[in-house]
What we know:
Number of strands: 6
Oligomer: single chain
Number of helices: 1
Helix content: 10-25%
Radius of gyration: 13 Å
Structural class: alpha+beta
Low-confidence stretches: none
Distance between the termini: 29 Å
Strand order of the largest sheet: 1-2-4-5
Amino acid sequence: MAELAPNFPHSPGRSSARRLIFVQPGSNATAWALMIDKTDGSRDYRYPLQLILIDRGNNKELKGEHILFTDVLAKPFVSYGSGVCRMETKLLFHLPRSRKLIDFHARYSS
């Protein structure tokens, strides 16, 4: 993620063993973030990345109640297969879409 989405650095305080959180930097009270969850009882993560809006002031482990908005256009699904190349391919597909959705939502939030 650091190479493919440098504008979404990993947020270790908000992440957990089952949930990876990457938060867009800024000074607003809210922040766009990308979330990747592990499926129940699995080693695999759900895809696509979930675009969420969170309270920037909460630096503790992110729980469902801390999510202010979840993009409903991308339903999570189990993505079979593992490996660095597969992960990178999935990210290369989903990251540009998330950036476009942020731009889309920004039109209605100002």
